[in-house]
Structure formats: C-alpha cells, structure tokens
Amino acid sequence: QNGGPYLAIYLWGFMFALALLMMTIYPIMIAPLFNKFTPLPEGSLREKIEKLADSLKFPLKKLFVVDGSTRSSHSNAYMYGFFKNKRIVLYDTLIQQCSNDNEIVSVLAHELGHWKLNHTAYSFVAVQVLTFMQFGGYTLVRNSKDLFESFGFEDQPVIIGLIIFMHTIIPVQHLLSFCLNLVSRAFEFQADAFAKNLGYAPELRGALVKLQEENLSAMNTDPWYSAYHYSHPPLVERLSALEDLDSKKDN
Description:
- Helix content is 67%, strand content 8%.
- The longest helix is centred in the first third of the chain and has 28 residues, at 7-34.
- The protein is α+β, with helices and mostly antiparallel strands.
- It has a 4-stranded mixed beta sheet with strand order 1-2-4-3, with helices on both faces.
- It is built from 11 helices and 4 strands.
C-alpha cells in the first residue's frame, strides 16, 4: 500500500538483491550442508579439464566432485562463481556413468559453451526483465480502480488485486513459457555445436545417450509437444542436430 507507483521497482530491487545473494551464498554455504564436495583428484581427467578450461580462457580456480549419488542417479555438471573466480562441479554419477574421460570432458565442453556464448548472462537478464514486467503488471492492476469496480469491489484490497492479476496473466505466462523454452532449446543446440567444434562430437553423442538412459529421460517425443513442455531438446533431436552439423561440414 505504501509502494504507490514505485511498487514494481521496490519489489524488483528486492528480488534482484535476493537473487545475487543466493547465487553467492548457495554454492558456498547452503549446498555443502546437503552434499559433500571434494576436490577432483590429480590425474588424467583433471588434466584434461584444466587444459580445456585454459584453452577457452575460463578462469577455473577449483574443481570439485559432489556426491549426488546419495540422493539420485541423475548426473550433471555445472559451474558457478563471479568474474575471475570460477569453479566447476562434477556429479559423481557423471564420472560413474561415462565410459571414459573424454565423454566427461565433452559434457563439460557443452557446459563451457553456455559460458563462452554468454547464455547464462542472457538468461539472467531475461529473467530480471520478466520479473520487473510481472511486478509492473501487478502494480497496474493494483492501482486500477475501474478494474476493481468491474469485479464488484468498491475498495482495492491487496489480496484481491493479486488474485485478479494472477488470473489475467495466465495466457501471457503460457506464451512466455513457450518462448523461453524455444530460447533455452536454441541455447542447448548452440552449446552442443560449440562442443562439436572443439572436436568432441563422438564423445558427446556417447555421453548424451548414456545420460539419457541413466536419467530415464524421454528420448523421442513429438516435436511440437517437446517445444512447448521441454526446456531441453529430446535426445533424438540433439543427435540429429549434431549429424546435420557433420553433413554441413562435409559439404
């Protein structure tokens, strides 16, 4: 009620600060409460990862293995950190499920492709813009006396304004969800192409097949269904895209 016309800015500012805070403290203070992070031992795998990071000028400072197998067989790898303080985390399930070191490195090449192509930064900016637009839309609804009167309310209760906004934004949310999935899927194809250009196409194909099998993911869904419901392309589409890249290179 006290926010007035600047309510959207206040809400967005709070959420933006909270997002930065969580991005900072979650991997360092919260995640270790639930999983054990250990440095990746010295060996050929570590050397290959460090060589790949160095070739891409990725400022790798620490390399961890997390015991994801204690809760799930799901395998993954991710990176975090700001500016020149980057860290890479491998799930122990990823190491167990891949046939060799090169398949693991190919998965990291895909993830580093997201970093090199600025996908993470683009996604963060997009989320912030959408969050601000949502808060702005709520502010417009909250301050519209005519809208409340059209629903039979003489005053403007905060909770009623929220309910009205949540119902009116549903069609827009479906459209935005579809568009965001299209962008996310495009990013995945680009990251696959990035890994392929580094020479990891055969290893990436093998790793994708194994990870899909172990994670029990849908491998070949209807293209229209997957475009709307999946933020990542199904396995068949990703393998086909990698083959198309090979064909174009040969031609």
